[in-house]
């Protein structure tokens, strides 16, 4: 993860718990499953700090709502695809300099708590 330089803010959304169709087996295709999503987003926040108005900040509520709608409204065969689509939703916002998305699929493997995929993106 990139260093947090002065003027930059780090937003973390932890354990966003959603239900979606994820997987390749018949029972996964036919039944919603839980996924846990963790996000880290870096953006320049100098204006937000000085002005103290939402118009000058990256609105994490708007981003999270878009993610919820997308995840719950679609079907995914692979965790990689789901994770990339969430990352793409975040990177649509020009203020985002770096984003990291981790998606956990609880109980995907016998004897394991979960399986997760993490993807990142950045812009200069």
Automatic annotation (TrEMBL):
GO molecular function: dihydroneopterin triphosphate 2'-epimerase activity
Record key words, sorted: Isomerase
Domain Dihydroneopterin aldolase/epimerase: 11-121
Catalytic activity reported: 7,8-dihydroneopterin 3'-triphosphate = 7,8-dihydromonapterin 3'-triphosphate
This protein's record includes keyword Isomerase: yes
Family (UniProt): Belongs to the DHNA family.
Protein name: Dihydroneopterin triphosphate 2'-epimerase
Highest classification ranks of the organism: Bacteria, Pseudomonadati, Pseudomonadota, Gammaproteobacteria, Pseudomonadales
